[in-house]
Write a structure and sequence with these properties.
This protein is mainly alpha-helical. The termini are far apart. The chain has one helix and no strands.
């Protein structure tokens, strides 16, 4: 399942995205957190 969005603010991970084992859920959560950090950093750069 592709959990990227075009709105830049919602990042599904883990059981919200698909049925996963714990290891895969943690990997997806880490990826979602990194994408959220990138979105916030990008928004801060636009405002500056």
């Amino acid at each position: 399942m592709n959990n990227r969005t075009t709105n830049g603010g919602i990042f599904a991970a883990g059981c919200a995205a698909d049925a996963l084992d714990v290891n895969r859920a943690v990997q997806q959560a880490t990826g979602a957190a990194l994408r959220a950090i990138q979105a916030v950093s990008g928004a801060a750069a636009v405002e500056a």
